[in-house]
Amino acid sequence: MSEETWAAVDAYLVELVAPEDPALRSAREESDAAGLPSIQVSTLQGKLLMLLARIRGARQILEIGTLGGYSTIWLARALPVDGKLISLEVDPRHAEVARENLARAGVSASVEVRVGRAIDSLRQLAEEGAGPFDFIFIDADKPSNPEYLEWAIRFSRPGTLIVVDNVVRTGAILDPSSQDPAIVGTRRLFDLLSAEPRLETTVIQTVGAKGYDGFALAVVV
Ligand SMILES: C[S@@+](CC[C@H](N)C(=O)[O-])C[C@H]1O[C@@H](n2cnc3c(N)ncnc32)[C@H](O)[C@@H]1O
After folding, report:
1. What pTM value is reported for the model?
2. 183 has a pLDDT exceeding 80
3. pLDDT tens per residue, range 11-45
4. Which numbered atom of ligand 1 lies nearest the CA of 166?
5. Is the CB of 145 under 6 A from ligand 1?
6. How far is the CA of 40 from the centre of ligand 1 (A)?
7. Ligand 1 center to residue 35 CA distance, Å?
8. Torsion of Cα atoms, 65 then 69 then 75 then 79, to 10°
9. How far does residue 82's CA lie from ligand 1's centre (Å)?
10. What ligand 1 atom has the least distance to the C-alpha of 117?
11. Helix H segments across the chain?
12. What are the pLDDT digits (tens) for 146-179?
């Protein structure tokens, strides 16, 4: 089975069950035009995030890694009118493009994009007494995933769903001798997830327009 087949099946399914509306399409296109890397979740994955947040009944969402706000728009659409999403982004240019995309999608009122290293923003949020969040999406620098998981647990309550993207990395996570910081961080993440009694965790391997990767899903018990 080839990457072309995965992408073709993705395109077929997107048309059927998750067609992008103009706001989502322009978020992707404007991000590309602004030179942002095309590393946002796929359309089907974005809709999965929205459905998971909706199933969870999420009113407070935390996202680590905004990019151009593509996943942010999907997640914001799961919120009730009085819901709130905070998204953390280190790159001011990414945050600027995201804010424009969020405005076009009509979700700016419920979304705050904070610029800075996520670790610093998380500390700041703790000082402000933010949380608990009902849904936390971790999708920033992969070497920091262990720290982000610890912060996510700190900002959680029983029932909080934590989702971490890019945890399979074409199977490269199988290599215990890897020196790649993203692999080291992801393997350390799995060590924490497997040892953490406060979490019920599973991992879904994914193929599609974004190649071969996976999501970790953990519910706080
Ligand atoms: C994979 S992209 C996020 C994609 C986005 N969640 C989506 O699916 O549309 C990762 C983002 O995390 C940001 N990032 C990288 N390191 C970061 C850090 N230390 N703190 C905050 N954001 C960071 C990058 O600038 C990039 O915009």
Report:
1. 0.98
2. yes
3. 999 999 999 999 999 999 999 999 999 999 999 99
4. 1
5. no
6. 9
7. 14
8. 120
9. 26
10. 20
11. 3-17, 22-33, 43-56, 70-76, 92-104, 118-127, 145-154, 181-195
12. 999 999 999 999 999 999 999 999 999 999 999 9
